[in-house]
Task: structure prediction
Amino acid sequence: MRLAVLGAGSVGRAVVDLASEYGHTVTAVADSGSAVVDADGVDAEAVLARKREDDVVGDGDPSHALSTDYDVLVEATPTTLGDAEPGFGHVRGALETDRHVVLANKGPVAERYDAVRALADESAGSLRFEATVGGAIPALATIEGVGPSRVTAARGVLNGTANFVLSRMAAEGLDYEHVLAEAQDLGVAEADPTFDVDGTDAALKCAILANVIHGGGYSLADVDVEGITAIPPSALDLAAEEGQTVRLVGEVTGDDVRVGPRLVPEHGTLAVTGTTNIVQLETEHAGRLNLSGQGAGGAATASAVLADVNRLD
Amino acid sequence: MRLAVLGAGSVGRAVVDLASEYGHTVTAVADSGSAVVDADGVDAEAVLARKREDDVVGDGDPSHALSTDYDVLVEATPTTLGDAEPGFGHVRGALETDRHVVLANKGPVAERYDAVRALADESAGSLRFEATVGGAIPALATIEGVGPSRVTAARGVLNGTANFVLSRMAAEGLDYEHVLAEAQDLGVAEADPTFDVDGTDAALKCAILANVIHGGGYSLADVDVEGITAIPPSALDLAAEEGQTVRLVGEVTGDDVRVGPRLVPEHGTLAVTGTTNIVQLETEHAGRLNLSGQGAGGAATASAVLADVNRLD
Result:
């Protein structure tokens, strides 16, 4: 397959780096300010070097990146809320010209799922977005295998930054601000970690899970969200006395979609540590399935993108 | 799809029961002594009632079951070793007539993988066997998504009976014979649990994992196997003092395939309890993926069979 990769953050760069190993050719790469297009395949090493050294992927205009020959749009630009632009427009352009779309950007399928689904239904191209929920974890492929109507609930720890902070607070008895600063020093938390710690990122993933399970109808506004910023160390101490701990848990149960700090058994399945994510599916005939792994990171997320590319018809 | 279901044990019966919910029609069912065939779809309730009351599925000859119209052979007869017959013959007959094959029977893909693979390569039909490893757990679909060559190791707790026995021995301090008798009373262990407790069942699953990861070449004879029958309660006590416990772990690492009791951290990922199974995959780009769930049971295993049917081209 010929891939057009939009976005040159850690995920987009890793897709460019790994695509040839998966048997695919990258014919276009664009970031917000530059682009490179080559119908015979771009030079991945040169693109990555330019990005690293000069923060550009090439000398072309990013708006022309999708005018090349490509079979699959890999949309890995930053997640945006509301109208989910410019990602939504990229997705529309690709589907309207009967190309496949694989998303790492959560915006279009969290905020405008029904519109994206309608575009995909009209298109000869297919739409996949495994990488948007739980990074490397095969959550959506598993729901597809079970059959969305036979998944009765989904639950998970879906934000590695929040989980790292909670794990460290519980293990060290330190307060939120202290641990967050440490996480930022380690590169686990971004300079602006708002969406991670206020629950927005996990809520977007839950909206996507709800859309997949229920066939659409959900956006961030439908998720009841509470973050971890107000949890005092004393709450974790109290939990520990009862053999419990606190995790930022997202849940899709029936029509309800919510994210918030929950008490979970200290050694239980949901008490994943560090940046690990977990998705738990309750199914009609197969009981509970637990899927855990790296919820973020360029290569791990890119591997979910490339698995999606391999699943395209 | 029209399904011909061979085998009317718990898995075969559950496939017959659930097929219509997944949009499929069962056109033949056979057990070892009887069969029923109806090109318009058998009456599932009647078949299940006859099996329950008279231990027959119909009044036909089982050897004629595959002469009906069908698209997919669901092979759910008991696993046999060595030549893997009669399962292997059923698989050959279906693939040679360009039908798809979905296996719950481990024999053909554990003992004669290369021959089955060659038949599938020559056939217009496809071969799938998710249900043979870890019941409801999507282990093989996940390996397929990651790409077999990018799975660097697989490891797992793959036998629910052995795991139940070890969990109970550790929790209650009881000896092996006592707990096994209890498991038999509860229906968790079969009357003859030899293959579960001597490691054979887990070893067959590891041979299948090795075949998938390495593209063939493995059978039971290639697996280094040790069971749980010789573990004294004192070994579990000693492990517990160090925060460890014992699990029957199967491993595929490089060319090595082995099954045996291993020390694992008491609250670690591999220390699943009761009849839960887990498969852990080490991947080149996506780190470690953990997949756990019901490793056995009619409905859970049938759901893996039917997910495979839905994945057929």
Notes: The CA atoms of residues 7 and 77 of chain B lie 4 Å apart. Chain B touches chain A through 35 residues (CB under 8 Å).
